[in-house]
Amino acid sequence: MNRPMSEGIEPQTPLPAGDNEGEADGWFGSDRPDRHIAGGESVAVARKKALLRILARREADRANIRPTVADIQAMSEQFRQGFDLTDADTLAKWLAANGLSPEDYATAMRDFAVVRLMEAYFAGEIDDLVHKQVAISTARHRLGKRA
To answer: Is residue 138 situated within a structural domain?
Structure first.
């Protein structure tokens, strides 16, 4: 029997809203995908983002697509500006508070750059599919219409 990699991980209690210390500690595992992590998204969304990173890496390797140092640096700068982590001390404190090493951060920025490259690589296919994906997503609005 195939078991999910997260089986056996005990769910943790989320941090109160607005508490930025230890945000990564709010992860619950795949057994509670509807729960929200401290960052505000659901575990299900976080897992899909992790899957996107894995699949993007694999497809980039298969297609021999590699981000340049400039691609990764641009991603890092955009991330840091977007989340007010522009000075080194603030970034270091945020990493430490969330259980991330500088290597974890570097891997994420490389992965994000890979995702961006793969998005460009598949732009035509994405454009052809995105309107159908949006239409499928409207099914959740049906839940609000129940009386």
So the answer is: yes
The conformation of residue 87, written as its DSSP 8-state character, comes to: S
Determine, yes or no, domain membership for 70: yes
Q: Is residue 15 part of a domain?
A: no
C-alpha torsion 51→82→106→104, nearest 10: -60
Number of folded domains that form the chain: 1
**What is the reported pTM?**
0.72
Alpha-helical segments (H) within 10-101: 43-62, 69-82, 88-97
pLDDT tens profile 38-84 = 678 888 899 999 999 999 999 999 999 999 999 999 999 999 999 99
How far is residue 105's CA from residue 89's CA, in Å, rounded to a whole number?
Answer: 14
